[in-house]
């Protein structure tokens, strides 16, 4: 790929995202199903015109989500199967959420956020992201579903990556619908759990616990981790929470975990860890996530040194950082009370 090709592909990136969004909204993968189908048939079922549908399907094939099986006939590629909400590992809610205009609009003001350090979302919508979510129940439910889908890969890996068996009770701080904790509890039958989140964040959690048969081993606590976290656990799990917030607020969350921590307890942080410098093979998605934190919520992705600083300020010592190759870009950071 030439330098020119690279730049053109990057500029077309937003168009590719909207193409995927259209595929989800039109239920393209569901309509094609498991066997190749002519574009005209897909168009008919979608209530669309045949020629524009063919153009959309060819663009999706060019993106690697479909295959043009024969002229004008399309089949679903493995990556495209993730756009079917009925299939395991589906990312349909994730796609809807991160192509939602209320997410992408603030990106139009990235340069302003870079100049000022201010959160563009707040200026565009007149309030912060999470308050906006609370006012929009449908969007909040979509966000919860997107976070659940984004967590499934880590949930499959985490129980094998850490010895939860030496603990009695784990609290998932900001644990949403309980997807992550359910995977841990299923793998460690002697463990009990608590999911802490806002009432909106916990809305789908009872269903998750029932599906996994864990309602009797896991309690749900509606609360605010900026105020406190429930006492009584010897392990506090914090996944994809700290990066939503600037340093002072991230320290507040960790400080509350430290205050609740018994002797021998641990805080387990699950987040991407940026290298000190971007390598030639660096994953751009983590750096784009960093900018998303800047424009939409005011948080940031962090290096190991950054996490050490957060932990130190919260009265914790960072003991280890373990990359999770099967759940890239996440790493597992274990912290304990500082001496």
Furnish the topology, listing elements before pairings.
Blueprint (H helix, E strand, L loop, with lengths): L2 H9 L1 H13 L2 H5 L4 E2 H8 L3 H13 L3 E5 L2 E4 L15 H7 L2 H4 L5 H7 L3 H6 L3 H6 L2 H25 L7 E5 L5 H9 L4 E6 L7 H7 L6 E5 L12 E5 L7 H14 L5 E9 L9 H14 L4 E2 H10 L2 E8 L6 E8 L2
Parallel strand pairs: 4-5, 4-7, 5-6, 7-8, 8-9
Antiparallel strand pairs: 1-3, 2-3, 8-11, 10-11
How would you describe this structure to a colleague?
The protein contains 16 helices and 11 strands. It has helices at residues 3-11, 13-25, 28-32, 39-46, 50-62, 92-98, 101-104, 110-116, 120-125, 129-134, 137-161, 179-187, 205-211, 247-260, 284-297, 304-313; strands spanning 37-38, 66-70, 73-76, 169-173, 192-197, 218-222, 235-239, 266-274, 302-303, 316-323, 330-337. Strand 7 (235-239), helix 14 (247-260) and strand 8 form a beta-alpha-beta unit. Helix 4 (39-46) crosses helix 5 (50-62), helix 6 packs across helix 11 (137-161) and helix 11 (137-161) packs parallel to helix 12. The model has no long low-confidence stretch (mean pLDDT 95). Residues 107-316 form the O-methyltransferase C-terminal domain.
Number of strands: 11
Low-confidence stretches: none
Structural class: alpha/beta
Helix-strand string: HHHEHHEEHHHHHHEHEHEEHEHEHEE
Our measurement of the CA-to-CA distance between the termini, rounded to an integer number of angstroms, reads 53 Å
Shape annotation: globular
Helix content: 40-55%
Query: What is the residue-averaged pLDDT?
Result: 95
Spatial extent as radius of gyration: 22 Å
Number of helices: 16
Query: Beta-strand level of the residues, as a percent range?
Result: 15-25%
**Main pleated sheet:** 8 strands, mixed
